[in-house]
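Open question from group meeting: does this chain pack into something compact, or does most of it stay loose? Before anyone orders reagents, we agreed to write out a predicted structure and look at it together. Recording both the input and the output here so the notebook holds the full record.
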Amino acid sequence: MGREVTQRYVDPLAQVWLGAARRIGLRVVRAADTYASTDGAGTLAIARDADLDADDSLAQMIFHELCHSLVEGEQSFTAPDWGMDNTGPDHDWREHACLRVQWVLTGRHGLRTLFAPTTDFRAFWDQLSGDVLADRTDPSVQAAITALRRAAQPPWAPALADALVASARIAAEVARFAAATPNEPPPLWLGISPGPALHPSGLPAGTASGSCSTCAWRHEARGGSRCRQVDAKVDPSWPACERHEAALDCQTCGACCRAAYHSVEVARRDPMVKKQPAYLEDRGTYLEIRRAGDRCSALTGGLIQLGKVTRFACEIYEDRPRTCRDFTLGSAHCLTARRRVGLSL
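Structure tokens returned:
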């Protein structure tokens, strides 16, 4: 005698990430003619379970695509496949940026094994270690930093963070019952590890080898060490947090001279007015440095060559105006500028 089926089983992790995608603004469908793609109109299509590899999961696939959306920005929701053509010269470093984001986000919760990518870029993932955001001259690092900052903003927040926390709880319980089976690959659950405790500052724990004493964002104020990232006292002996930066270098940054700030006023009595008039715009009531797109017209560098961002330089450095001379490396304004261009978390 048959029975009427009135409910269906959904894998718990799949349920979590289907819900997260829905909250972020995506409808997930399963398709026979694609691995993973978006239509630019709110639908994310993912291959059916029968067409996925044994170490794939719907949850991991959704998470990976959401990391792509973080790298490409909110406007990518209206572009097919997040605006990526999968063949152009920017494709590799964009994929690398996505995997760096996955590495950081999953690392916070001990989920790197469970949510490891299963694409052709798995080899890149497997060689990641330590501070994967350390090389600020790598365009994929810069894109990953910007993406990680987006993760704390709508439409991704709070759904993405909630899904990671829920996934970690589920994984921790399932891992208690997981066991290897002879002659079969071990289940991914055996790779679950507890997420690291928060840094004493309250920020996520870091993987850099330094400490607060070697971080560029520590400064001395009010009789002690303080961190510009959290605007609070820190102990120099504390290990590095996720936002640790060992050193700042203007020539690998240039943030204050490009998109971070859109106008630099110059006093009419500033020596630059006579020495470098071609770089000035007279706005009637004030003078400002001429812009070239989103950057100062005197700024050079910042091109992607051989997988690296070329060093920045100022063509009028010796004659730069007082406003530029007063800008201090490592100051609160410096941190703001670096954050705006994706160089600091």
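Observations to bring back to the group:
The chain is about 30% helix and 10% strand.
The first strand starts at residue 27 and ends at 31.
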